[in-house]
Amino acid sequence: MSETREFKLPDVGEGLTEAEIVSWKVKPGDAVKVNDIVVEIETAKSLVELPCPFGGTVAELMVPEGETVAVGTPIISVSTGAGAAAPAAAAPAAKAAPDESAIETPPDDQAIEPGLIGGPAPGGRTSVLVGYGPRTTEAKRRPRKGAGGGVSSAAARQDVNAAFSTGAVQAPEVPAEEAEPAAPVVPAAPVVPAAYASPQPIRALAKPPVRKLAKDLGVDINTIAPSGPGGVVTRADVEAVANGAAPAPAAVVPTRAPGADETRIPVKGVRKMTAQAMVSSAFTAPHVTEWVTLDVSRTMRFVKRLRQQREFRDVKVSPLLVIAKAVCLAVRRTPEVNATWDEAAGEIVLKHYVNLGIAAATPRGLVVPNVKNADQLSLRELADALGELVATARSGKTQPAEMAGGTFTITNVGVFGVDSGTPILNPGETGILAVGAIRKQPWVVGNRIRPRDVTTLALSFDHRVVDGEQGSRFLADVAELLEDPAAALLY
């Protein structure tokens, strides 16, 4: 006898209370196993793929794509046990799902340990993700959008059946020996529930090695235009996107409706979190910003030499790498810029490590992942860490843990051709450095005017922690290291 179990939206860490359903990876009737990815959600900090904690047959998608729900809300139901079978819409003449589709029960000597996926957790709950599980409290379920009040109501299932019969939605393939002759169907207007409609396929067709390559390169394989036979994404397709030869995933730009005088964009996810953090920082920490314009010609020559070194040939080397190293070195002489103001304790907390944040603009908003213990890394290790950080951020896969615990931030506005700006502190940090565009400009060298590579740095700091003398010394140290990278030998 089958049993229907509901999977509730778990707390994916750091006290997040809600998430948006971005895309479903399954549909009613699909067979799922323990730890199969069933849904992609967007929290206030990142995109997260959720695995199913039990196996069986998908009975209902309880929340449509695009809706934001609270932690503890049931989002999908799965029929488990020997009697679980796919609905008629999935395969009208197919055999019933075998018992193996249900969750596998390990023998007594191989029982799943408490706290692991599929195993028991304190309070009788089922662990959803390693390290955390659903909260014991249940949030009140929000009303679902759309007519009929639910994604998987009887009417919605009838609509899906009609869509399958008209060819609007492709039904799962049935082996020839199991399929029954189908009667001619008169084409009709396809009717598909809005919750199932998607501009992209739920899952791209690709071989496992190609999927792994896309993951390693930070490319969303579901956004790649396939060139292989039968619509299969090939290795060449992935490499083309990664190298910029093919269009990469882009942000969804709201289009203006005909005759509309304004467009409203919902504030949610990463952008909502960023807005709240910036307001809190701007009106909590007293900001001071100092500027310095400097000649970085020697840094540019140093970068060019690094690119020719055998050790750096397979990694991206840019001025940002040298700037990041200069910040880590300058922090040693002015540790106050790498500190935290503890209001509750009435203390200034000096950090003896540098978790260097790099502000990255993504299609979903601004994120600031950080390189852990950046001050302990060699130049090559720092280059590897920065390359991985940027690739992950651009793919939208930055996890909350990668953005937590930052101590100092660099924002490179120069990539947009901007000379500099007055950056706002990342909440909880004391300093942030804005790096402007590097341009050829006339510069006085030895009483003569010569073309040089010039840029402007702007340092914002919390004046409760850093006074003018300390902030000026730190900025001067960074400038000295960029004007002459050899000065690093003095630190």
Give a short summary of the structure:
Helix content is 22%, strand content 22%.
For the structure shown, list the relevant keywords.
alpha+beta, OB fold (Dihydrolipoamide Acetyltransferase, E2P), Dihydrolipoamide Transferase, Chloramphenicol Acetyltransferase, 7-stranded mixed beta sheet, 4-stranded antiparallel beta sheet, 9 helices, 22% helix
Helix content: 10-25%
The CATH superfamily of the largest domain is identified as Chloramphenicol acetyltransferase-like domain
The beta-strand count equals 23
Shape summary: globular
Describe this structure in words.
The protein is α+β, with helices and mostly antiparallel strands. It has 3 domains: 3-202, OB fold (Dihydrolipoamide Acetyltransferase, E2P) (Beta Barrel); 204-247, E3-binding domain (Dihydrolipoamide Transferase, Irregular), CATH 4.10.320; 271-490, 2-Layer Sandwich (Chloramphenicol Acetyltransferase). The protein is 22% helix and 22% strand. It is built from 9 helices and 23 strands. The chain has helices at 154-166, 208-217, 235-242, 269-282, 297-308, 319-333, 379-394, 400-403, 468-483; strands at 3-8, 18-24, 31-32, 37-42, 47-51, 56-61, 68-70, 74-80, 120-121, 125-126, 205-206, 232-233, 287-295, 339-342, 347-350, 356-358, 360-362, 365-367, 370-371, 408-412, 431-435, 439-445, 448-462. The strands form 7 sheets. Strands 13, 16, 19, 20, 21, 22 and 23 form a 7-stranded mixed β-sheet that branches. The protein has a 4-stranded antiparallel β-sheet with strand order 1-8-6-3, with no helix packed on it. Strands 5-4-2-7 form a 4-stranded antiparallel β-sheet, with no helix packed on it. The radius of gyration is 27 Å and the shape is globular. Mean pLDDT is 76; it is low at 85-141, 145-202 and 246-252.
